[in-house]
């Protein structure tokens, strides 16, 4: 769809960065599968979505089929020179499992990395690391209900590396070895992933789907699997499933990149043409049906781990059975426009003072080609459940009764046309990985992959014809109020029959009269004239990097880099003042207040909703953030709207609104944050752990809820007023724009402002942060019914002031991660994905630490932290092999070489290059410095930092949640 849809299928994608074991693997033993679905003729390739459609597929794409049924899609692109993205899409997922095989498809995906015909156990990831690829980022896979997708990101699209990739994919198709030792080891990893993904929200999603679609197969086939089933799955079941479902007819190879198409075709044919379906091709299992004709149903799910309550009104109908077509595309745009307008209304309600909801949205999704589900969802406080139900019911009824206003409809048409134009303009510079993922998604969704230019032409052709009535009819067709499902979940309870009480609240809302929506005009943008354009007093061209530096008479500093990485895109970043360095020590919560309330508070002349309406057709966006050493106002736009983009950003500097809507957003955010902090390991680490590791500095971590709730907009004004008006300012522009055009736009906006500080204060005292050197162990607790816990182990370092040393710590971190994978994940199966990070900052130059994070089951906590410290100590006191050194260094060097083709990277580089002139020298020297690193240097750094006596072990575990579950109010829903 053209709107952003919240899809359960995508949410449930299970990522896997599996390492394989060092062991000999046995060949696949033949077995006999039982209760197989109907057999289809072998070698019959599935049709493409565009076959039989009146839509024309993207002419740049080569579509191919082999005689055995395997399909391939090849798209040449030069958006990322020399690189390629490969995908193996298997039309196989958890839907193919039986009741006692839940989790088998996901288990099988893990085993693909545990030994195949050409890649012995322990060699898959290691092989590609030696070629400069990162495990996880460049070699990965995921499993959902209806697909398993393996992907490779190749740093070089030459014949050797492409053939390596296709060889691995062929092994995944029919060359897995299923060594029993590997199965037993990887079983622990799969179980660890189930723990890793366990959360109150995940459990709630499973139960809500089972409630809403009880007769749909996918409501009983969640891809992560059932722990008891995973423990019981045996080798023969894995082999049977593999030989039954991993067949050429269910395989599609996707290749996107800077390569010769004929070369790729030849390699695919060579590697896959002799693949066979050992047991034939089989039809999909019966998917069940959408829950229809059962009347109104309601359910309450009480969970103490969920502090924010969610209310959902859901309507399901059978998914469309016709293929993609011009008519289907027009319908998608019609329903998309209706949903977007209704979402705009819901967002306005959520932003109101004293709103009954914290957030609200509507979405429409097709699940596994079985059900099309339209959901109205809101989050609220426990005391506002009935009011939230009423608000959702009334807003849907208002839309169905009265439709959309002329202003809403015209504005949405303009916005959608603008979006489609932008997509077409940027098509040539879309990165290969994004294009490859889009192709896979289109195959899964059975939609035609149309070229952006053709799609734009089609939309421009039928958009003028689409009417308000057509959009309303599409919405009404999706909404069946007679067979509604109402789901309430959270830290709430109801005495008696909860379902009946929820339905009573809904029925009471139906008696509330709703009025016709009124056209609301946002007027015209009030901030276009900032005075006489500024004058440039200094200009310096860094020709080797293509960077232009300039200074205006009012001390506004400008940095510009023109690139071709994103066609018709300009990224803008304004840094001013001292950010966190200016944070009052007695009110550290202002950082959160500013991040939540400043931008959403709008401008003096326009609310945030007015701004959305005024800029909807301008192809621009803006954001605000408090950084470590500056406040940031940034955004992105097209070259033609750079004046408007800078006018908007400058208006936030000169006329911020500090409106109640911003404070309301902040208060909602505080509630959501504390729900996470109090009930998840990550939340506890990010707040309590972060402050602890920064020596108790109040600028890090989180203040108490009480202190945060006491802050006001006046506090925010008092803090921001001086940096907004006078603070040292540096604005950077990166992208598809001529430097002189950029300087002219800055001259009329930021350059026209009154004089600002010429230099930034050194903030010497504020830059001091101390690591707690005497802290060796610490236990942190959070309230949860789950057994999910975290072990965090840290070692203090020298920070980022010594950049060459920091580069060597990066390599050391990669080696430590590799060893944790080998021991804690592969050998013990005690964690899913250990992470190791070199944490430091140029802002706090003498502060830094190396951090290892592992999600484990709570009973594992007492031993895991010390085990990690011991592994690090072995690294410090022992030696590093040439192979593990090269496997750590090469992917880092490859990433450094690749990032120079990214606008976001360059924006970060030049964002303060006049305040910190060394920033550009770092760019010039970093790749060369990384290449110069030796193994002896890393061994020396390990000895300096990773010994056991320097480790800090933090154990973050759950306790039983408190029983203060709140009752739902019994009042009649009020009209919003």
Q: How would you describe this structure to a colleague?
A:
By secondary structure, this protein is of the alpha+beta class. It has 4 domains: 31-282, Metalloenzyme, LuxS/M16 peptidase-like (Cytochrome Bc1 Complex, Chain A, domain 1, 2-Layer Sandwich), CATH 3.30.830.10; 297-510, Cytochrome Bc1 Complex, Chain A, domain 1 (2-Layer Sandwich), CATH 3.30.830; 536-752, Metalloenzyme, LuxS/M16 peptidase-like (Cytochrome Bc1 Complex, Chain A, domain 1), CATH 3.30.830.10; 777-959, Cytochrome Bc1 Complex, Chain A, domain 1 (2-Layer Sandwich). Helix content is 40%, strand content 18%. The strands form 6 sheets. It has a 7-stranded mixed sheet, sandwiched between helices. A 7-stranded mixed sheet has the order 16-17-18-22-19-21-20, with helices on both faces. Strand 6 (139-143) and strand 7 (148-154) form a beta hairpin. The radius of gyration is 29 Å and the shape is globular. The two termini are 29 Å apart. Residues 1-43 and 970-976 have low confidence and may be disordered.
């Amino acid at each position: 769809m053209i709107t952003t849809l919240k899809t359960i299928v995508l949410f449930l994608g299970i990522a896997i960065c599996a390492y394989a074991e060092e062991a000999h693997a046995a060949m696949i033993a033949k077995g006999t599968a039982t209760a197989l679905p109907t057999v289809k003729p072998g070698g019959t390739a599935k049709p493409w979505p565009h076959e039989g459609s009146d839509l024309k597929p993207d002419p740049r794409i080569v579509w191919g089929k082999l005689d055995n049924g395997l399909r391939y899609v090849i798209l040449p692109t030069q958006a990322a020179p020399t690189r390629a993205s490969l995908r193996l899409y298997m039309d196989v997922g958890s839907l193919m499992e039986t009741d006692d095989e839940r989790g088998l498809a996901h288990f099988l995906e893990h085993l693909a990395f545990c030994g195949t015909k050409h890649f012995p156990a322990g060699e898959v990831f290691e092989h590609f690391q030696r070629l400069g690829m990162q495990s996880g980022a460049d070699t990965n896979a995921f499993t959902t209900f209806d697909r398993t997708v393996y992907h490779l990101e190749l740093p070089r699209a030459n014949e050797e590396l492409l053939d390596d990739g296709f060889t691995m994919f062929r092994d995944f198709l029919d060359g897995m070895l299923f060594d029993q030792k590997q199965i037993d080891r990887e079983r622990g990893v799969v179980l660890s992933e189930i723990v890793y993904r366990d959360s109150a929200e995940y459990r709630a999603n499973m139960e809500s789907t089972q409630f809403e679609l009880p007769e749909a197969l996918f409501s009983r086939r969640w891809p992560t699997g059932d722990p008891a089933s995973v423990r019981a799955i045996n080798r023969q079941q894995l082999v049977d499933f593999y030989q039954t479902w991993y067949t050429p007819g269910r395989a599609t190879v996707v290749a996107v990149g800077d390569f010769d198409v004929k070369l790729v075709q030849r390699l695919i044919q060579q590697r896959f043409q002799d693949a066979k379906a050992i047991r034939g091709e089989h039809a999909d299992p019966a998917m069940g049906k959408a829950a229809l004709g059962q009347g109104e149903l309601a359910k309450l799910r009480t969970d103490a781990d969920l502090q924010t309550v969610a209310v959902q009104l859901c309507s399901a109908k059978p998914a469309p059975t016709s293929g993609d077509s011009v008519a289907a595309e027009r319908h998608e745009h019609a329903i998309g426009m209706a949903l977007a307008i209704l979402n705009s209304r819901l967002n306005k309600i959520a932003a109101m003072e004293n709103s009954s909801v914290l957030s609200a949205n509507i979405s429409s999704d097709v699940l596994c080609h079985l059900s099309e589900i339209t959901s109205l969802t809101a989050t609220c406080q426990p005391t506002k459940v009935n009011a939230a139900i009423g608000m959702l019911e009334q807003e849907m009824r208002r839309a169905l009764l009265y439709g959309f206003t002329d202003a809403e409809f015209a504005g949405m048409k303009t916005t959608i046309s603008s979006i489609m134009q932008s997509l077409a303009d940027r098509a040539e510079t879309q990165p290969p990985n994004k294009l490859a993922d889009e192709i896979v998604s289109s195959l899964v969704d059975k939609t035609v992959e149309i070229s952006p230019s053709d799609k734009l032409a089609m939309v421009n052709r039928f958009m003028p014809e689409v009417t308000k009535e057509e959009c309303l009819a599409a919405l009404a067709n999706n909404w069946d109020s007679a067979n509604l499902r109402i789901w309430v979940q959270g830290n709430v309870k109801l005495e008696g029959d909860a379902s009946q009480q929820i339905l009573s609240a809904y029925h009471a809302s139906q008696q509330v009269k709703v009025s016709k929506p009124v056209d609301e005009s946002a007027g015209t943008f009030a901030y276009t004239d900032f005075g006489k354009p500024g004058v440039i007093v200094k200009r310096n061209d860094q020709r080797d990097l293509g960077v232009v530096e300039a200074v205006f008479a009012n001390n506004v500093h400008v940095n510009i880099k023109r690139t071709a990485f994103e066609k018709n895109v300009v990224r803008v970043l304004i840094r001013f003042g001292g950010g966190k360095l200016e944070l009052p020590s007695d009110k550290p919560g202002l950082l959160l207040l500013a991040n939540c309330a400043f931008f959403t508070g709008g401008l003096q002349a326009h609310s945030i909703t007015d701004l959305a309406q005024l800029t909807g057709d301008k192809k621009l966006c803006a954001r605000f953030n408090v950084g470590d050493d500056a406040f940031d106002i940034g955004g992105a736009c097209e070259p033609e709207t750079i004046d408007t983009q800078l006018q908007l950003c400058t208006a936030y500097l000169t006329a911020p609104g500090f409106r109640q809507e911003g404070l309301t957003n902040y208060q909602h955010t505080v509630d959501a944050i504390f729900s996470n902090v109090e009930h998840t390991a990550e939340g506890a680490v990010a707040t309590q752990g972060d402050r602890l590791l920064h020596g108790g500095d109040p600028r890090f971590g989180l203040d108490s809820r009480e202190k945060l709730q006491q802050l006001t907009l006046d506090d925010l004004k008092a803090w921001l007023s001086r940096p907004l008006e006078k603070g040292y300012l540096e604005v950077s522009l990166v992208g598809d724009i001529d430097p002189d055009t950029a300087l002219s736009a800055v001259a009329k906006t930021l350059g026209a402002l009154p004089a600002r500080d010429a230099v930034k204060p050194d903030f010497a005292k504020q830059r001091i942060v101390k690591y707690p050197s005497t802290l060796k162990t610490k236990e942190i607790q959070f309230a949860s019914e789950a057994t999910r816990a975290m072990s965090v182990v840290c070692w203090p370092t020298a920070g980022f002031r010594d950049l060459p040393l920091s580069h060597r710590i990066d390599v050391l971190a990669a080696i430590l991660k590799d060893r944790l994978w080998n021991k804690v994940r592969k050998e013990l199966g005690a964690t899913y994905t250990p992470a190791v990070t070199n944490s430091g900052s140029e802002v706090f130059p003498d502060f830094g630490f190396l951090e290892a994070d592992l999600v484990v089951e709570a009973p594992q906590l007492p031993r895991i932290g010390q085990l990690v410290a011991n592994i690090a100590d072995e690294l410090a006191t022992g030696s590093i092999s040439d192979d593990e050194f090269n496997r750590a260094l090469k992917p880092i060097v490859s990433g450094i070489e690749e990032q120079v083709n990214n606008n976001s990277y360059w924006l970060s580089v030049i964002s303060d290059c006049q305040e910190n002139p060394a920033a550009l020298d770092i760019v010039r020297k970093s790749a060369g410095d990384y290449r110069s690193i030796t193994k002896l240097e890393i061994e020396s750094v390990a000895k300096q930092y990773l010994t056991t006596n320097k480790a800090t072990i933090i154990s973050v575990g759950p306790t039983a949640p408190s029983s203060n579950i709140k009752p739902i109010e019994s009042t009649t829903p009020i009209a919003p």
